[in-house]
Design a protein that fits this description.
The protein has helices at 13-21, 48-52, 61-67, 78-92, 115-118, 121-136, 148-157, 171-174, 188-196, 202-206, 210-217, 219-228, 261-281, 314-328, 363-375, 383-386, and strands at 5-10, 30-33, 43-46, 72-75, 99-103, 106-110, 140-145, 163-165, 248-258, 284-294, 300-311, 335-347, 399-404. It is an alpha+beta fold.
Length: 405
């Protein structure tokens, strides 16, 4: 018997959450935007009305305003979105414990065993949509299918506030006519490559020999062949399941360009504090440090350093990151963005051979962690960060890109 998998995808999640506090904007084109003063003035989310004007996620505010001069903008509140995400998944858990979050606003559910009590997949999906709308005031689109990929494609097929059922009998008529670029996990570059070979639709890809796709795209080609032909069969994990953290990173686009060593040190103080505290939270240590730097012309370099002794000390992470920048960057050149990432992670409890000169002392880090746990994440920070005009605090008043993969 086939499994019954749901993919639930919130409609315009950030914008919908903000509209709960701004009902006066319900019938107006509206978008959630980054802070223009921090030089990250882009559209993070938009409502359906703004979407009809052509406003798109990740474009700049001025581009969006050009398309829609009366676009109403509100600031983002990520803590609020995370809390709503928790509440949404709590609703899903009423139907099954096989709930696998895919992002802050998307989850897969395996409701195969729930059908005896709750009805078929479509009935369960419709009931979930009604419950989320009634209790939280938000809408979602759901896909129902026999595997995760087709369920995901179903949730994208009809929006907003709809359920689409994709079966073994109808997937060719629903999915195969779509543009190849609409396939899950097919990005712009892959779509362009496929189209250059005459593969224009998902159906075209489905009838292309698997070996041909592999020769074109490597392992991804074989994976996509399975996906488009309905052969994907990965399980929906239990809600408590979490994939091991492979890297922990934090990036900041600064309010102004960094100019010189002192600015760089201030930026790294904030980034190192965030990354190292997350490592300690996960009981992990970094076996390597990676630094990405972007200049005002959007030229980016990436450098990394493997460590002799793994660490989650703020001071160690800071020192290694600084040494990478000093050895690979002209300190007289301006910097727009720095991303600091801890890589090659290992369990904190793994014993390792220290050199005779190495001495681990995390008392300051532990004290700061304790204070933050008790009084909040912004309750304590470094003086040079607090006094800075580059727009950094520990969690950032500027745009941050967080990576925990």
């Amino acid at each position: 018997m086939d499994r019954v998998i749901l993919h639930c995808d919130m409609n315009g999640f950030f914008a919908s959450v903000e509209l709960l506090d701004h009902p006066e904007l319900k019938d107006k084109p509206m978008a959630v935007a980054g802070d223009a003063t921090s030089r990250h003035g882009i559209i993070l989310a938009k409502n359906e009305i703004a979407k009809k004007y052509g406003v798109s996620t990740a474009e700049t505010i001025w581009q969006a305003k050009k398309k829609c001069p009366n676009l109403q903008l509100v600031s983002s509140h990520h803590d609020k979105y995370r809390q709503y995400s928790v509440e949404i998944n709590k609703i899903y858990l009423r139907y099954t414990d096989l709930v696998e979050p895919f992002s802050i606003d998307e989850s897969w559910l395996d409701v195969t065993a729930s059908q005896k009590l709750l009805g078929d997949g479509k009935k369960i999906a419709d009931d979930i949509r009604a419950t989320v709308k009634k209790e939280l005031g938000l809408t979602l689109s759901a896909g129902v299918s026999y595997n995760k990929i087709f369920a995901k494609m179903g949730s994208e097929y009809k929006k907003p506030d709809a359920t689409t059922v994709i079966t073994r009998e109808n997937y060719k008529s629903i999915i195969w006519p779509q543009d190849v670029g609409d396939m899950f996990f097919v990005g712009k570059a892959t779509a362009a490559k496929l189209k250059s070979m005459g593969i224009m639709t998902i159906g075209d890809m489905a009838i292309t020999p698997r070996t041909t796709l592999i020769s074109m795209l490597g392992k991804q080609g074989g994976m996509l062949y399975d996906y488009v032909n309905g052969l994907e069969d990965s399980p929906v994990h239990h809600y408590s399941h979490r994939e091991p953290v492979k890297s922990v990173g934090n990036g900041i686009t600064f309010r102004r360009n960094l100019e010189g060593l002192e600015d760089i040190k201030t930026a790294l103080s904030a980034l190192s504090d965030t990354v190292s505290s997350r490592l300690r939270k996960y009981a992990l240590k970094a076996g390597g440090i990676k630094v990405d730097i972007k200049d005002p012309n959007f030229t980016t370099i990436s450098r990394q350093k493997q460590l002799d002794v793994a660490t989650n000390s703020t001071l160690d992470v800071y020192r290694y990151a600084l040494s990478i920048i000093e050895s690979s960057w002209d300190l007289n050149k301006p910097i727009r963005l720095i991303t600091l990432t801890a890589i090659n992670l290992q369990d904190e409890g793994i014993s390792q051979q220290l050199s005779m000169f190495a001495k681990e002392d995390n008392r300051l880090d532990n004290a700061m962690d304790t204070i933050r746990d008790k009084f909040g994440k912004d309750s304590i920070s470094f003086g040079q960060v607090l006094k800075s005009d580059i727009g950094v605090t520990r969690e950032g008043n500027t745009h941050e890109t967080d990576e925990e993969a």
